[in-house]
Amino acid sequence: MKMFGKSTKLLLAAALIAGLGTEALAKKVYKWKLATTWGPTLHPFIDAPTKMAKMVEEMSDGRLIIRVDAANKHKAPLGVFDMVKGGQYEMGHSASYYWKGKDINTLPFSTMPFGMTTPEQYSWFYYGGGMELMEKVYKKHNLLSFPGGSSGNQMGGWFRKEIKTVDDLKGLKMRIPGFAGEIMAKLGLTVTNIAPGELYTSLERGTIDALEWVGPGMDINMGFHKIAPYYYTGWHEPGLDLQFLINEKAFEKLPKDLQEILVVAMKASAFDMYLQNYHMSAEAWASIEKDYPNIKIETFPKAVMDAMKKANTELRKEMTANDPLLKEILDSQEAYQKKVRKWTEMSDYIYLKDNL
Asked: What would be one Pfam family of this protein (predicted)?
């Protein structure tokens, strides 16, 4: 035992007496904290980090334990980026487009209007160069970002009044984040971003006139239909992806096997969240006509959609004119979407069109 110091010898002796062996001493436990943007009952968003943490603890045999703090605990639902960057939390679970005010290049990694669906976007992330571009953006903030679960194609939002023309949008106050918020602002809306836990109250009190959230699986439980009965189909978030944020220094301190376990658990829980949300929306949609007859399902008129597409094109040109990295990201997405969409049309669209 010459290779060990005196204190280590004593610890080894104690472990051997206890029947634990030297393996128990070598089992260093890493304890992390994860901050989410979501409340404790906001399923399935809160389930993705919770399930991830459970998988990590089980796969690592208790060597990496991650405590998940919902927004009601840390009180800063839209402060996750700063808390993880600053080291108060080793991890976070949120949505990349919430940070566009800090770094506009974070915006496209959630979703883009008229962009890719979930399978298309995940293919881009893992096989089309998306992960490398995301690493380039977040590295300058000493952060790592990984896909954190997709909501799939989202609904276009809840409105107090019917939208028949572009003029009907002007002057409305709407909660809508990301690039879609920029489009709506260009069309004359007052756009705001509000934390999930404050959405219903803001709509009820008239702080906002309209909002988009996710889809029927999550929206119905929020009760928006009680205040704003017009429910519009989507255009703005065809494949919204949430994110796992990690403090880069904390990640580098983990042994290689724990790093790999963490990456695998994030990927598995992200996919599971997509399935869970898809199921929730299917269940809710099947019951809307019977259980919620006051909800009026609408599609934005063609003139409105054309105005949104025009604003989208103009804004993309404006925002990329002096930002080479943003242009690189959007060009990558656009090129991949053009390629993958041909297969999506062949494999999904034609099948659905011919079998509905």
From this structure: DctP
